[in-house]
Amino acid sequence: MQQSLSPFDIGRIRGLEPARERAGxxxxxxxxxxxxxxxxxxxxxxxxxxxxxxxxxxxxxxHPGDPLFDEGEDATxxxxxxAGAMKVYKLLxxxxxxxxxxxxxxxxLGLADDEAYAYSAEAITHSxxxxxxxxxxxxxxxxxxxxERRLLGMASHELAAAQEQMLLLGRKTAKEKIASFLLxxxxxxxxxGQTANPVxxxxxxxxxxxxLGLxxxxxxxxxxxxxxxKLIALMPAGRVDLLDVEALQDIAEGN
Amino acid sequence: MQQSLSPFDIGRIRGLEPARERAGxxxxxxxxxxxxxxxxxxxxxxxxxxxxxxxxxxxxxxHPGDPLFDEGEDATxxxxxxAGAMKVYKLLxxxxxxxxxxxxxxxxLGLADDEAYAYSAEAITHSxxxxxxxxxxxxxxxxxxxxERRLLGMASHELAAAQEQMLLLGRKTAKEKIASFLLxxxxxxxxxGQTANPVxxxxxxxxxxxxLGLxxxxxxxxxxxxxxxKLIALMPAGRVDLLDVEALQDIAEGN
DNA sequence: CGACGAATTGAAACATCTCAAAACTCGTGG
DNA sequence: CCACGAGTTTTGAGATGTTTCAATTCGTCG
Lengths: 255, 255
Known about the structure:
The structure is a homodimer.
Chain A: H1 7-20, H2 47-56, E1 58-62, E2 67-69, E3 77-83, E4 86-91, E5 97-103, E6 108-109, E7 120-123, E8 127-133, H3 134-143, H4 145-171, H5 174-191, E9 199-200, H6 205-212, H7 216-228, E10 232-235, E11 239-242, H8 245-252
Antiparallel strand pairs in A: 1-8, 2-7, 3-6, 3-8, 4-5, 4-7, 9-11, 10-11
Helix pairs in contact in A: 3-4, 5-8, 6-7
Chain A binds a DNA duplex through helix 7.
């Protein structure tokens, strides 16, 4: 794997650098300069609240393949992705892996109803994250219900996505899974203000398989099928051109 | 299907009757008498708060097979199950169905990050629910952050369950799926204070299949396999005796 | 340019599905 | 109390989509 940084990601990470430079002094809230704040759970916060957030946040940078935390570890922190792409997954004792989700700028991770993380997290591309001590963040949530409300909204959204994924895993064919996956990646890129059509697919075939409940080989064969049917085109740097979105949507819905 | 009411459920529903009789007058909060409150999102509420809840809640009773709402409908209400068993599911246009979850006393449903329900809900057994107008409940959440916090906790819990189900759907074999399912039903029954071992399985083979991403036939065959291996015994009234929990756990984890 | 991991392609194996029929359950009515 | 009937569950046999195992090609990076 070890995907290199896409042009977009470099831009994102550069954009965040002011926020990462937290001189101890009384400078303006670095969170105020956060270019992806509107996507995160910090979206509803005002000037003063952001200052409080700034004081407890720490900025993390990860390289492709770097682990963030492992399933079962003590869930001491919550994270918000500000740039790049992450994967979160669960393992069975014999090594079978299910990727629970891919995370991009704006997504958070580390919410655990237990004391321990319920999944492992690892960087796919060069990524940047904000790291919040759980206890301190909880104290903040107590003070700023708007933030808690936002978090509930994001959790609801994630829940809906998880349910959609259950439908995919339990009832869709390989072709339907791949079509759904590509469209979903496109939709999410769009939400982040990126280009939805030649969609960026930064993860490996193996990761895609472990996300869709397929093997690497089946993923590859299905891409080939879609390519031969002129529904997609594989471009350099892990980009996929969706040549016939309508047809892909029909396939994704099972028609 | 049309499962008849189990002795337990009758008890539950009877236990709730005081709460269902909402004379318009100034009587004591019917929610104060709720026998499953500790399981619901009303758990953290005090005397006064419960009174407010009582004023906006309505009690619903459903018979086996009764629909509660359909995917895509305007999400005007939230519900909390107080007795019985429900199923929530999503459909593909051609009729393929994925059951997203089975709900029992204490579980809530209807949380939508959109204006519309993301799934359909239907009663499996004779069931009772509390029905809350979304707008009014949201106003209450604003006033009682404790309730919102509890809801976030329950949503996190659901999210973790959904992720576990993704692992099951994407990576487990039929035998592992069935073993996981039975153990999970048992654990949940236990949490509600019911018997975990001869576990109650009120749903049809078809429902189980649509929950686990299998066909009815495969579910049936797998039950037979487990029965022949002396790991379970099928008892009357949809109960399953887990004869060797350890072995079932090993199977469920993929060992 | 050379090399190593990732992706693709091929052929055979297999778990689950599909189609079909028999057996069972349980409520109902004679 | 027993027999009937409709729906559900179980069992069987054959079909199939996906996996497994193996080999080749591609792409990227040193």
